Each structure stands twice: as C-alpha cells, then as structure tokens.
C-alpha cells in the first residue's frame, strides 16, 4: 500500500504549474497561487558560458551589455534553440519558488509548451524540468492551458476558440471534448509589433530606438482600432543623421498605421482557423464567442477589430498574461480529471 506514502509526499512538496512563455515565465504553486512572473531572459558570459543573470535582472541588460555578455531569450520564436539556457532558466525559476517554501520535496510539475513543438523539443523541456528538480513532469499545450485558465468549458462537447497572443507566437485553437480540434500557429505576435515600431521610427523619423523603448511605446499608445481619445507619447533614441540623441512625439494614429502589418496577420490567422473549423463547432464558437489571452490581448481595440472582421463576439480573458499559468494551476488541483489534456506522448511520466 503506497497511498499513505504518496499522501505524505504531497504534504511535503508543492506541485508547480509553469508557463514557459517566449516573453515571460510564470510559476503557479499549488494551494498558493502565482508566485513568480519574470521575463524569459538569460544573460550569459560568452567567454566562460557562465549564466550571469536570469529573469527581470537579465531583461534590464538587453541592449545594454558589454561585448562579452549576451542577454538572450532562449524561447524567442516558440522553439527551444538552446537546451542549456532553457535548463538554466528553469532551474533558476523552480529553485526560486521552491527555495521559499518551508519544506521542499521534489515537486510534480506541469509545463505549458507551444503547440507544434517537435518531439525533440518536448523531450528537452521534459529533461530540463527533471534536471531542475521535478519528480514528475506533465506537458500541456499552451492554447489548452490558456483555454482552461480563461474558464472555457474545454471538456464539454462544444467548441471553444482560444487565441493566445504572446511575444513570439500567436496560437489559435478550437477545443472540444478535452482535445485540440483545430490549431493554427504563427510566429507573429508582440515582438513583431515592437519591430515594426523600430522600423517606423527609423524610416519616418530617422530615429534609431531600442526594442525595449518600442515595447514601452506600444504599451503606452499602441492600438488595433481607433479609440475615443487619440493619445501621444515621446520616444528617445539616436538621430541617424547627426548621431546625436533626439526625442520625437508619436501619435496613436501613426503607431496604429506602423503596426497594421502584424495586427492584420494575427486577425487573418484567426480567420484561417475559423475556415478550418467543422460547422457544428463553428456554430458553438459563434454562440460563445472567441476568448483572447496572452499579453498581446492587451493591445487596445484588438477585441473590436477581431469582432468587426469575424462577426463573432470577442472576450479578452481576465488577466490575459496569467491565463496559461492559471490553466496549469487548475490541472494541478485535479490531475486525474485533466489527464486527457496532457500531450499524449507524456501522459505517463517518464520517470
Ligand atoms: P509569452 O507567452 O510568449 O511569454 P506573454 O503572454 O507574456 O507572451 O505576452 C508578452 C507580450 O505581450 C509582449 O510582446 C508584450 O510586449 C505584450 N504586452 C504586454 N502588455 C501589453 C499591453 N498593455 N499592450 C500591448 N501589448 C502588451
Ligand atoms: Mg504564452
């Protein structure tokens, strides 16, 4: 009889749900809630390969490092390009959370991975989680976790559409009976919007700005549809002609125009997913609406724009940046009930 032993282990460990995002990593601790939310950034010394900083500390270094230090985002494009950096990042975050708990046995861990990652990449996340101290590892596709976190009835015989707009990828999925029926993923999301703002400043104002400045400008005045009040913001950078510092005031309309390319692609991707959705499920989606999660959901007017182009009601999830990790948290509380939603190859733990 190992029941009592398992129960005892449960008392001493705190199971974790992790959203390993291209821009941000969040960790949910069972019975406690979200205990960590930091940028998915790692700073490494290129001479020694030593990891110098992870998370918020490392993000501060982006664009500001001396030549021997690189601040990189190991999951930038939604793929795991570099196992060692992902491992360093996971170990740091798991250690950070687990170290704060009074008694810490090895936890069970649920990790959200982008849909469409390869078997090799899944294996890499699995291995990295085990090496980082996990006792058992379960993988869940991010759109599934986002749908659960956004409160969609994913286990019912009814279609739910979820759109997750992150930093590196936009994922659209239709879910029914606990499975992903339609899935569309593109590598165009928040980062691409930032890049368009950098390009616009260079081309229209002869001003070179950094990607963090572009992101701040997007958060301040970015929009996907005209609003009631048109705001402005000031960005600072280098004048490309004189080489000297200069600042420029930008309007909401200019930025909306500058970012229209990626915004249109995101909306087109949603339309493609709708076209691929079987009619019965499409009828459900029309009735219940489209749920939007991920940081990109916070772009002003995006809900209005998607509604106009699809004729389907759109709901932005509460705290869209937290939807995926809250979804993994819900699974932690009821591993048995959610067993079917874990990625098939990893339904049974490898350990
Ligand atoms: P990921 O899951 O890929 O890590 P997130 O869901 O954490 O991504 O979202 C990060 C993206 O959301 C970034 O591109 C960031 O600039 C964007 N973002 C965050 N807040 C806002 C906002 N208020 N308006 C527009 N975009 C935002
Ligand atoms: Mg995400």
Describe this structure in words.
The protein contains twelve helices and 16 strands. The chain has 351 residues and is an alpha/beta fold. A five-stranded mixed β-sheet has the order 3-2-1-7-8, with helices on both faces. Helix 9 packs across helix 11. The C terminus is likely disordered. The structure holds adenosine-5'-diphosphate (ADP) and magnesium ion. Magnesium ion binds next to loops.
Supply the helix-strand structural class: alpha/beta
Strand order of the largest sheet: 3-2-1-7-8
Q: Looking at the structure, what is the overall shape?
A: flat
Strand content: 15-25%
Let me know the average pLDDT: 90
Question: What's the end-to-end separation, in Å?
Answer: 20 Å
Number of strands: 16
Overall helicity: 25-40%
The low-confidence runs, each spanning 5 or more residues with pLDDT under 50, are: 344-351
Radius of gyration: 21 Å
Biggest sheet statistics:
5 strands, mixed
Which molecules are bound in this entry? adenosine-5'-diphosphate, magnesium ion
- The secondary-structure element order is HEEEEEHEHEHEHEEEHEHEEHHHEHEH
Number of helices: 12
What's the arrangement of secondary structure elements?
Blueprint: H1 3-12, E1 16-20, E2 24-29, E3 33-39, E4 42-45, E5 51-54, H2 56-61, E6 69-72, H3 83-99, E7 108-113, H4 119-131, E8 136-141, H5 142-149, E9 160-165, E10 170-176, E11 179-186, H6 190-205, E12 207-208, H7 211-221, E13 232-239, E14 245-251, H8 252-258, H9 260-275, H10 279-288, E15 290-293, H11 302-310, E16 314-316, H12 323-333
Parallel strand pairs: 1-7, 7-8, 9-15, 15-16
Antiparallel strand pairs: 1-2, 2-3, 4-5, 4-6, 9-10, 10-11, 12-13, 13-14
Helix pairs in contact: 3-4, 5-12, 6-7, 9-11
The protein binds adenosine-5'-diphosphate (ADP) and magnesium ion.
């Amino acid at each position: 009889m190992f029941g009592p032993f398992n129960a005892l282990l449960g008392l001493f460990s705190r199971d974790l749900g992790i959203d390993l995002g291209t821009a941000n990593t969040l960790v949910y601790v069972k019975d406690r809630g979200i205990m960590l939310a930091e940028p998915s950034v790692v700073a490494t010394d290129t001479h020694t390969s030593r990891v110098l900083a992870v998370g918020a500390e490392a993000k501060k270094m982006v664009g500001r490092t001396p030549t021997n230090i690189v601040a990189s985002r190991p999951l930038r494009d939604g793929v795991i390009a570099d196992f060692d950096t992902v491992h360093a990042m996971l170990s740091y975050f798991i250690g950070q959370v687990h170290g704060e708990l009074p008694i810490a046995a090895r936890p069970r861990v649920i990790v959200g991975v982008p849909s469409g990652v390869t078997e090799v990449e899944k294996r890499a996340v699995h291995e990295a989680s085990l090496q980082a101290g996990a006792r058992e590892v379960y993988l869940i596709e991010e759109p599934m976790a986002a749908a659960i976190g956004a409160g969609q009835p994913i286990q019912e015989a009814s279609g739910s559409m979820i759109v997750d707009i992150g930093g590196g990828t936009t994922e659209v999925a239709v879910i029914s009976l606990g499975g992903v029926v339609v899935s569309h993923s593109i590598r165009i999301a928040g980062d691409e919007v930032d890049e368009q703002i950098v390009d616009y400043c260079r081309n229209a104002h002869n001003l070179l700005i950094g990607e963090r400045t572009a992101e701040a400008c997007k958060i301040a005045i970015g929009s996907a549809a005209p609003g009631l009040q048109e705001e402005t913001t000031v960005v600072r950078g280098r004048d490309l002609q004189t080489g000297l510092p200069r600042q420029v005031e930008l309007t909401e309309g200019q930025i909306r125009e500058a970012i229209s390319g990626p915004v249109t692609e995101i909306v087109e991707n949603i339309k493609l997913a709708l076209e691929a959705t079987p009619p019965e499920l499409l009828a459900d989606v029309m009735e219940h609406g489209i749920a939007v999660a991920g940081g990109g959901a916070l772009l002003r007017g995006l809900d209005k724009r998607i509604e106009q182009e699809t004729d389907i009601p759109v709901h932005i999830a509460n705290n869209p940046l937290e939807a995926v990790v809250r979804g993994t948290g819900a699974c932690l509380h009821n591993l048995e009930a959610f067993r079917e939603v874990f990625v098939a190859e990893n339904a049974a733990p490898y350990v």
